[in-house]
Write a structure and sequence with these properties.
- By secondary structure, the protein is α/β, with parallel strands linked by helices.
- Helix 12 (272-279) crosses helix 14 (319-363) and helix 17 packs antiparallel against helix 18 (432-473).
- It is rod-shaped, with a radius of gyration of 46 Å.
Length: 739
Amino acid sequence: MMKLKHYVKPYLGYVFAIIALLFCQAVVDLNLPNLMSDIVNVGIQRGGITDTAPEAIRANALDMMLYFASPEDQAVMQSSYAPADAQAMSEKEWNKFIEEWPAAEQGGVVYLTAVDAAAKQQAGQAFGRSCYALSQMIQKMESPVEGEQTAPMDLLQSDSLAPMLAALPQDTLNEVITAAATAPDTMLEQMSAAFIKIFYTQLGADMGSMQTGYILRVGAKMLLMTLLLVMCAIGVGFCGCRLGTGAARDIRRDIFVRVTGFTNNEYDRFGTASLITRSTNDVMQIQGLLSMGLRTMFYAPIIGIGGIFMALSKSAGMAWIIALAAVIIFGVISVLFAVAVPRFKIMQKLVDRLNLVSRENLSGMMVIRAFSNQKFEEERFAKANRVLADNNLFVYRAMATMMPVMMLVMNGVSLLIVWVGGQRIAASTMQVGDMMAFIQYTMQIIMCFLLISMVFVMVPRAVVSANRIAEVLDTDSSVQDSDKPQHLPETVKGEIQFHDVTFRYEGADENVLEHVSFTAKPGETTAFIGSTGSGKSTLVNLIPRFYDVTEGSITLDGVDIRNLPQTELRSKIGYVPQKGVLFSGDIASNLRLGDEQATEATLRDAIETAQAAEFVDVLPEGLETSISQGGTNVSGGQRQRLSIARALVKDAPVFIFDDTFSALDFKTDAKLRAALKERTADATMLIVAQRVSTIMHAEQIVVLDEGRVAGMGTHEELLKNCKTYREIAESQLSKEELA
């Protein structure tokens, strides 16, 4: 995978943007449960009261609270409040104070003077301990009505409370004050809120409006954070897509460029079907990892670690539940991946096999039908398809079990949290909202493991694909340009010379050509003939450097072709392959492969020379007639003539015709050779042929037999001096034609 890391470098900006947006998204995700907890704890349970020390309170109520405070807390509370009256405040401040606390107009009210957070917190803690002590004392007191149990808050508003407090034993008072000093903060906050609500009600405050306002404020904050979450998710998706598609585009481009430079040796090594799979399916695996897997890789740790810290902040004593869930999930994932990952690694090879079978069936359909072999091919395809399907089913069934197990763990953990949290709520060591937030944080942690498991699904397959792609990109063509290239003169004659050339295919045990030497001169036709497998096509394929010679050398105008840049060498050669290949488009676009700037007059001249005008002119659209992929909508002879016309458009000093007249009738063959002789009068022409009649008028004929030169000369000379040529000629021509 690291071999392809340089494809990500141009898009590092998107990577950093993804990380930043994911961090923002995770922060929002982690804060939403907190806000939900605040709505439950503060908005619902506390009536929207966020204060731990009342902003305003009756003076006699404050005196009562001081009665249940320690000396230290009494000092803090007394210093934190001052009398509220018109003389102590400006007119504007007093009017606002009266509007908020209507009963203050009657006098006897004090207000909180602490303004900084630290002073408010200190006053709140002191007031909370006083509230807790008072609550404990109320619970110890008997109901004023015999036989009834009065609620603590009702008792607090009773007129009989003051005389009852005066009669309290000092030991009991010290006991509740001491107990308040060790009470948990959550309990102190709940007690403070309950008492503050009573004190605010006594001052005429609108408690319903206070509660509704708090819930709406927190709800609006949650809505804004949700919108931010959506924007971050959209941004991450956009950046991920740009990263994945951009890198995939660059990889596909480089694969294509590298493959177009391969020789047949490399094509044989990889196979066409495998190269197609590597440039499509394998690249898609990399794209999926970069666009989806990368964000998961970054997001899962952030949300997981953050979720653990946030959950522990709600209840550290319940951390063992998270640990238990993590152990169970990790065990399940480990088992599943031990079973599924090996199958992931062979998936791409099975896709290669299926593509190979499909491609062979489609390209060889006519042969398959001619031999009535459809049943065998169907079974061959079905077997490859079944093996791939069985492998995929095994993998996806294994992965499918993950979600039900995850849901079982998540629901089981939720029940466990509710059970344990319920006990803590009953013991007043935890609030309902905190328990709900703890559940959500635990679910986020579990989802973190689920996301990580998805990454583990994507990474092995992507790594296999990356290695397969890197294998192609790391493979150099066996034909390379020289480090110190030479160049041809501006005017190229086109003289081709073979100097004791020997050639052997890569990995072969025997030579295909041995010690071949000849000279092909400009203005002359050099023909090659021989039995099937004698090396004729191999010989002419050495000239444009489709392969490099094993021994010896080939020169063009005295320059070793291995020292010439391949582009420069091939620009001087008009090549017509043994199998005429046309590309999708129209006739004109196919002909202009020889010269993009060719005029219509040049195209007309080429098709007339190639004897293609007779069928092109009768087509309704002429040169604009569409050509299907591979040229399947024209006949074999028409395809050959268009291939010849394409080479003639190039107007090169060297022309190579690799058995390109085999599909032509004798009349068309003769007319074409005559036209070619006139058109290429100054060029070097090399022709591979099976028919003696096609080459008998050539200035030089090279006879090949098992890779060696069996004879060389004109038709008449070879009839006299070369037994191999004479046998070929006598098998094709009558005595009158030979004479």
